[in-house]
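#struct-help
A.M.: can someone run this one for me? Single chain, 134 residues.
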Amino acid sequence: MALVEPVMTTEPYASARRVFWIVDDGSSHRGKKAIDRLTKAFPNAVMLHTPVHTSWTNQIEIFFSIVQRKVVSPNDFTDIQVRDRLRAFEDRYNTAVQPFQWRFTTSDLDDLLARLNQHTTADRHQESSIALAA
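D.P.: on it. Structure tokens below:
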């Protein structure tokens, strides 16, 4: 929220119909509590999560996890052996690695925006109905 507040209180974001916050699966913005905290403070803010394991930090963590399991465990060898094992792993890994292929298309984005519009419209209709009933 330390980053969100200065952005959301500044134009054009303060008066925008919707402002999308695209976040990874970090613990500070994971789950319904984080979404509720954001929308309570800024009703025009919409939190969107990237797929799990797609942020660059997650990719680094995954890579080092692989290195830990495949190269440095067990850890009962000399420094020279570690260096040689890391270099051999790097050569082997670089020949097998494939670039990530993003599958989220503009059509997928259009579908997501349409669903968000339906959800927002339904919420506003429900709020109006409650207000009229009161």
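A.M.: thanks! The longest helix spans residues 106-133.
D.P.: also worth noting: The mean pLDDT is 81.
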